[in-house]
């Protein structure tokens, strides 16, 4: 995908938005220009704080899930015994939409940041653990035997095979679940908080009826998801060069 | 150098692959192990490599009983032995990096280990200089196998164990690599044991050929590796003989 094409698509979407807003001709869909002006004004002001809070929550959840799920996935994928014990549990829990746990998590962890971060962690945790586990379990036996014959024991195999093999799986899992994570972040930020993009969007839209500001919040949230997606994409190209050669 | 004493091994109790198997190999010999699929030739190689343990009996190399992979034995497999995320140079360095990782503990790395030749030397010797920065997916099957050989030789082994190393290559590349392997073994005074299902390969490479079936037996082939041996009558006669032997067993 070329950058130029992405830029053209963005321009195309903005034109579509402009046309729709002209067609609808009501305050609930302001024109893009009007929203952009509010977005840049607000970003120097209050919106920046909300953006920062949301960014912190989603980044913390992501970091936590990588730190915990990646080693767990490696351990399960690399050991038949652990695989036998944990894979059925993961099999049962993986398809459950984690968003239904939102009220339960709030009951247990309160309404602060911990609960919000924990929910994002929960979503990413299963994605990462499953992909890393499959990656580790799917390594060709020949590769491991070759390493063993070079004198590698458990520790060296972990360092030279499992660890680098898990990297693309972690990045793929993150890329696939950033959208869901940001969506669930929005939901968690609707509850009992005064900070975060979810709160900002909802408050401006349903209490203040400040639609341009609401749309500015929507743009901020989109940029949050998009930005994270770009970062992971960039990291994958940087760290997994071998996947992009032909 | 290698002594296999009363070796028994089987994946299940009812079907033993080896029973009371004895074998002896001298330093610097080149052996080919020939047999049909499922005869246990790869298993025997893995036993020698210390990647599997005998049910009973012992394997000793230089007087030391094999209970785990031995640092001075190099194993080269048919495929998949290279790290897909590492370049040819990084793959060649891998054995040395594993040794650095443990330090010279005598268990994973021989004590006083000092590789005679650098990684650069091996890249050069195996004609890999130009592709050193490429990933395995970007190079040919022959170059991949050359990389596997370079990686093994970089850790200065004295025994080379090869499992069908050239079977997925085209005929020309295969012959090139067979000749290269023989000259490298001579240069480095390596003992070579190569497992193959191809009669021609066994006859071209093994000065001694172990045919593995219900009664393992050894064929002498002292001219293997000589220039033009492959076009000699003796070579064709041996191929015929081996073919009849395998055929007879199958019948």
Description:
The complex is a heterodimer of chains A (246) and B (251). Chain A is mainly α and 246 residues long. Chain A has two domains: 1-29; 31-244, MetI-like (MetI-like fold, Orthogonal Bundle), CATH 1.10.3720.10. Chain A contains ten helices and no strands. Chain A has helices at residues 3-24, 32-43, 46-78, 80-93, 102-109, 113-137, 141-149, 154-188, 197-207, 211-239. The longest helix of chain A has 35 residues, at 154-188. With 251 residues, chain B is α/β, with parallel strands linked by helices. Chain B folds into two domains: 1-72 and 159-251, P-loop containing nucleotide triphosphate hydrolases (Rossmann fold); 85-157, no CATH class. In chain B, 35% of the residues lie in helices and 23% in strands. Chain B has helices at residues 41-49, 88-102, 119-125, 141-154, 171-187, 199-205, 233-250, and strands spanning 2-12, 15-25, 30-34, 56-61, 64-65, 73-76, 159-163, 191-196, 208-211, 217-220. A six-stranded mixed sheet of chain B has the order 6-7-8-3-9-10, sandwiched between helices. In chain B, strands 2-1-4-5 form a four-stranded antiparallel sheet, with no helix packed on it. In chain B, strand 1 (2-12) and strand 2 (15-25) form a beta hairpin. The mean pLDDT of chain B is 89. At the A-B interface, helix 7 and helix 8 of A face strand 6, helix 2 and helix 4 of B.
């Amino acid at each position: 995908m070329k950058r130029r094409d992405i830029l053209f698509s963005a321009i195309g979407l903005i034109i579509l938005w402009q046309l729709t807003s002209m067609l609808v001709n009501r305050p609930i869909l302001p024109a893009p220009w009007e929203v952009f002006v509010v977005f840049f004004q607000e970003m120097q002001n209050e919106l920046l704080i909300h953006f920062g809070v949301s960014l912190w929550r989603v980044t913390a959840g992501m970091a936590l899930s990588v730190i915990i799920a990646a080693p767990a996935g490696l351990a399960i994928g690399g050991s038949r015994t652990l695989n036998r014990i944990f894979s059925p549990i993961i099999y049962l829990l993986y398809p459950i939409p984690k968003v239904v746990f939102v009220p339960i998590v709030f009951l247990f962890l309160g309404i602060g940041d911990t609960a919000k971060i924990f929910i994002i962690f929960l979503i990413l945790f299963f994605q990462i653990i499953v992909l890393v586990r499959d990656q580790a379990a799917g390594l060709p036996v020949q590769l491991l035997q070759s390493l063993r014959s070079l004198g590698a024991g458990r520790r060296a195999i972990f360092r030279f095979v499992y660890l680098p093999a898990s990297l693309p799986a972690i990045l793929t899992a993150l890329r696939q679940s950033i959208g869901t994570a940001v969506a669930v972040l929005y939901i968690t930020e609707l509850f009992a908080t005064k900070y975060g993009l979810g709160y900002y969007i909802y408050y401006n839209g349903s209490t203040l009826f400040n639609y341009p500001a609401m749309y500015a919040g929507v743009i901020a949230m989109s940029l949050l998801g998009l930005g994270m997606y770009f970062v992971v994409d960039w990291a994958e190209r940087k760290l997994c060069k071998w996947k992009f050669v032909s | 150098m290698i002594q296999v004493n009363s070796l028994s091994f089987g994946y299940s109790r009812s079907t033993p692959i080896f029973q009371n198997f004895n074998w002896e190999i001298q330093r610097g010999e080149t052996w080919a192990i020939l047999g049909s699929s499922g005869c246990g030739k790869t298993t025997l190689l893995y036993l020698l490599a210390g990647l599997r343990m005998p049910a009973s009996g012992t394997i000793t190399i230089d007087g030391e009983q094999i209970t785990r992979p031995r640092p001075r034995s190099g194993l080269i497999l048919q495929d998949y032995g290279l790290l897909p995320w590492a370049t040819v140079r990084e793959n060649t360095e891998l054995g040395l990096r594993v040794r650095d990782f443990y330090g010279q503990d005598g268990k994973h790395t021989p004590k006083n280990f000092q590789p005679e030749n650098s990684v650069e030397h091996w890249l050069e010797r195996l004609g890999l200089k130009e592709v050193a920065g490429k990933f395995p997916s970007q190079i040919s099957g022959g170059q991949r196998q050359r990389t596997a050989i370079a990686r093994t030789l970089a850790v200065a082994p004295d025994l080379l164990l090869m499992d069908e190393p050239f079977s997925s290559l085209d005929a020309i590349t295969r012959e090139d690599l067979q000749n290269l392997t023989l000259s490298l073994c001579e240069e480095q005074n390596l003992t070579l044991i190569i497992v193959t299902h191809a009669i021609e390969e066994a006859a071209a490479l093994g000065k001694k050929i172990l045919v593995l079936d219900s009664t393992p037996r050894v064929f002498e082939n002292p001219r293997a590796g000589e220039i033009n041996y492959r076009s000699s009558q003796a070579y064709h006669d041996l191929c015929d003989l081996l073919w009849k032997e395998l055929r007879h067993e199958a019948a």
